[in-house]
Specification:
The model has no long low-confidence stretch (mean pLDDT about 95). It is globular, with a radius of gyration of 13 Å. By secondary structure, it is mainly beta. It is built from no helices and eleven strands. Strands 2, 4, 5, 6, 9, 10 and 11 form a seven-stranded mixed β-sheet that branches. The protein has a four-stranded antiparallel β-sheet with strand order 1-3-8-7, with no helix packed on it.
Length: about 120
């Protein structure tokens, strides 16, 4: 059974930092690029970051320069380091496993972790 379990969310003041983790189990980690998405209340889910098996990352313009994605292929875990947080970063953050051989195919999703940034 595949599981993606996010953790690390919480309440932080604007300008602060948080690190999210997503632990994967039950899947062949090397076959997946790992993504972070977020969904704010009343808004559609949006892409945040993607990190390949090799460690190369892409980011949404809204988080570029503030967020850093990384992965530990031994621990089957991905991370999202979030710095200089803004109130508009408030959302539920999800990790998603994207099949390498089929880009855009998000086979598995985590349950999400809430991030709240106060002004």
């Amino acid at each position: 059974q595949v599981q993606l379990v996010e953790s690390g969310g919480g309440l932080v003041q604007a300008g602060g930092s948080l690190t999210l983790s997503c632990a994967a189990s039950g899947l062949t980690f090397s076959r997946y690029g790992m993504n972070w998405f977020r969904q704010a209340p009343g808004k559609e889910r949006e892409f945040v970051a993607r990190i390949s098996w090799a460690g190369s990352a892409d980011y949404a313009d809204s988080v570029k320069g503030r967020f850093t994605a990384s992965r530990d292929n031994v621990k089957n875990t991905v991370y999202l380091q979030m710095n200089s947080l803004k109130p508009e970063d408030t959302a539920v953050y999800y990790c998603a496993a994207e099949r390498i051989i089929r880009p855009g195919s998000y086979d598995y999703w985590g349950q999400g972790t809430q991030v709240t940034v106060s002004s």
